[in-house]
């Protein structure tokens, strides 16, 4: 009954947000997704007369992408990857007790966000395509072996991605590798341990790598190049999975990472494949053809976009959203993106997660904070995460707040005329609205793809969700380099990768009326050669700065705890999240097992048959009277 009440509150808030934003006459985003999301399969997908044409196969495959763009999937991507981290604190819950309980470390198997049903629904949808696509070759001459290979490769990768999220969230999970077609099919499988599950993900991804299209092969169809699984997307997933497999290997070896070294070697190899092809992709499809940017240049070594240095603007004088917010967040299918979940309101795949969790505005005069707000550690300069002059802080966070810091990463562009001015004694709050009325960035729909200034406040319903982008691959590689049995060359390359991302986000600042250049890292490069821990901290700090609010931070913290076979560091990090009762909250996460979600009570109960119990609850969450009152 409690869950039903919470769900009603949740859906009421979502409906209110949708209604408010529509009434606000929001400006439509560019780069809208193509019709691969617009057709849903009928209920006939398991009937004998359905799998007869190429269109039948495509429709069911497209349904997997459509389901990933829906609330039940993406809300969990965000909740599982962010809520328990130090990035976010209480915003405006609005009666959502499930969110409140997670934030207060009172996570129980009855919480609505413990449901994994949508992920297995997507996995089974992929399995249906893998089961029936072969037979369509004999039914429809327009459906070729090449068509089948590409679609099945994409479904293998989507299946792997869903399993990968489940492992990171729940640890021991069932692997669903066969299609469940009839009601009589057994819907439950026994759980497997995480390394076995990750090996299954890798097996699917290695197969998919040789089946899917190379990035850019969809020509000028940017939505498909970014919204379909391509070779670069598969390789990005492989690198990510290998980093996690290494962490679990180290955990099982009680902190000994000898057995993880092969994973780091392979991870680095796949990162290099992605970075090499992305450099060519950006040169061919973005810079030369001006499909996304004007007045930009590439980093000498990495496929990163920078403003031109010879166009008369010093970096500190550039608008804070260029290149940062606009280039990587506030426009769909951006140049550095590898894989994005596509959102379209007119086909039932609007992005309701961003306004619900992070906030929204419809009148360019105020910002409504969502269920979450940014933590002080991210929002405030004093002893905070971001250095003075970092584009990202003022582009991601409403720093002028006196109470709750709004997360504006997906809805607002930072403003040049309101950039912070810093002196020795006072930090003047950053004002995202400004006086007079500010100028906002508008993603342009014109043929020349140039940017222009216009009024745009929030169109979150059509904001894509980024799963992988170039800076992610760079920092995955840096982490693997730092953890490989280190040599000086590895450490120097890891540092260079982090430094490149850091440097392009710095704009400088003003102090006592004088211009101050870009702040450098407060770390001596010589020290890195003697301290792997220092280098790893640098990498994890940069990941937090770069990917704040993108559903990655909690997973980063868990992976680090696994590798160290200790919760000591994660508990220390989380103390800053809570103003009061920090010890009470962190005490509930002292065990490594407590870093993972419980399996939903409803799933545990439904998995019990007359002679078999398929699912076993994480021991930390085995229900007792004490836990219920904790």
Based on Cα principal axes, name the global outline: globular
Arrangement of strands in the largest sheet: 1-9
Biggest β-sheet strands, sense, barrel: 2 strands, antiparallel
Strand content: 5-15%
Q: How does the helix and strand content classify structurally?
A: mainly alpha
Spatial extent as radius of gyration: 24 Å
Please, what is the oligomeric state? single chain
Mean pLDDT: 78
Count up the helices. Answer: 23
Description:
The chain is mainly α. It has 23 helices and 14 strands. Strands 1-9 form a two-stranded antiparallel sheet. A two-stranded antiparallel sheet has the order 2-3. α9 packs antiparallel against α10. The two termini are 20 Å apart.
In short:
By secondary structure, this protein is mainly α. It is built from 23 helices and 14 strands.
Question: Which features does this protein show?
Answer:
630 residues, mainly alpha, two-stranded antiparallel ribbon, two-stranded antiparallel sheet, 23 helices, 14 strands, globular
């Amino acid at each position: 009954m409690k869950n039903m009440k919470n769900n009603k509150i949740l859906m009421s808030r979502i409906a209110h947000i949708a209604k408010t934003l529509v009434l606000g006459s929001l400006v439509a985003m560019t780069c809208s997704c193509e019709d691969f999301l617009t057709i849903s399969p009928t209920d006939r997908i398991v009937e004998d007369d359905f799998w007869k044409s190429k269109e039948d196969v495509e429709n069911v495959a497209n349904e997997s992408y459509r389901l990933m763009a829906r609330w039940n999937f993406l809300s969990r991507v965000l909740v599982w990857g962010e809520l328990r981290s130090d990035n976010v604190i209480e915003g405006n819950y609005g009666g959502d007790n499930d969110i409140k309980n997670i934030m207060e470390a009172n996570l129980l198997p009855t919480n609505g966000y413990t449901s994994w049903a949508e992920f297995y629904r997507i996995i089974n949808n992929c399995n249906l395509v893998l089961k029936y696509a072969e037979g369509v070759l004999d039914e429809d001459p327009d459906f070729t072996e090449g068509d089948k290979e590409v679609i099945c490769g994409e479904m293998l990768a989507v299946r792997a991605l869903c399993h990968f999220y489940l492992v990171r969230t729940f640890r021991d999970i069932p692997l669903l590798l066969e299609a469940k077609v009839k009601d009589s099919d057994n819907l439950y499988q026994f759980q497997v341990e995480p390394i076995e599950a990750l090996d299954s993900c890798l097996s699917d991804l290695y197969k998919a790598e040789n089946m899917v299209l190379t990035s850019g092969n969809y020509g000028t169809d940017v939505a498909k190049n970014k919204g379909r699984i391509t070779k670069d997307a598969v390789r990005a997933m492989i690198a990510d999975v290998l980093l996690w497999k290494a962490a679990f290997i180290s955990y099982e070896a009680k902190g000994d990472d000898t057995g993880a070294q092969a994973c780091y070697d392979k991870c680095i190899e796949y990162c290099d494949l992605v970075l090499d092809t992305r450099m060519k992709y950006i040169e061919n499809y973005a810079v030369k053809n001006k499909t996304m940017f004007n007045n930009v240049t590439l980093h000498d070594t990495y496929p990163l976009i920078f403003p031109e240095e010879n166009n008369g603007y010093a970096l500190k004088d550039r608008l804070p959203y260029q290149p940062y917010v606009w280039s990587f967040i506030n426009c769909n299918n951006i140049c550095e993106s590898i894989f994005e979940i596509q959102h379209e309101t007119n086909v039932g795949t609007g992005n309701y997660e961003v306004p619900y969790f992070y906030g929204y505005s419809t009148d360019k005069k105020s910002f409504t904070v969502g269920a979450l707000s940014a933590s002080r550690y991210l929002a405030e300069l004093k002893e905070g995460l971001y250095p003075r002059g970092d584009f990202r802080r003022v582009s991601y966070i409403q720093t002028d707040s006196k109470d709750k810091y709004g997360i504006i990463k997906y809805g607002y562009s930072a403003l040049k005329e309101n950039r912070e001015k810093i002196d020795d004694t006072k930090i003047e709050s950053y004002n995202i609205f400004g006086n007079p009325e500010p100028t906002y960035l508008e993603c342009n729909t014109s043929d020349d793809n140039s940017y222009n200034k216009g009024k745009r406040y929030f169109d979150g319903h059509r904001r894509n969700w980024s799963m992988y982008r170039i800076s992610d691959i760079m920092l995955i590689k840096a982490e693997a380099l730092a953890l490989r049995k280190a040599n000086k060359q590895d450490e120097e390359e890891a540092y260079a990768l982090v430094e490149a991302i850091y440097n392009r986000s710095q704009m400088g600042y003003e102090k006592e009326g004088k211009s101050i250049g870009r702040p450098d890292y407060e770390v001596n490069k010589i020290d890195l050669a003697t301290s792997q821990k220092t280098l790893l901290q640098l990498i994890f700090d940069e990941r937090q700065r770069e990917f704040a609010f993108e559903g990655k931070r909690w997973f980063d913290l868990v992976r680090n705890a696994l590798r160290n076979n200790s919760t000591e560091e994660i508990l220390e990090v989380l103390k800053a999240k809570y103003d009061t009762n920090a010890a009470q909250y962190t005490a509930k996460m002292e065990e490594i097992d407590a870093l993972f979600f419980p399996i939903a009570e409803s799933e545990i109960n439904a998995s019990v048959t007359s002679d078999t119990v398929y699912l076993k609850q994480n021991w930390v969450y085995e229900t007792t009277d004490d836990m219920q009152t904790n």
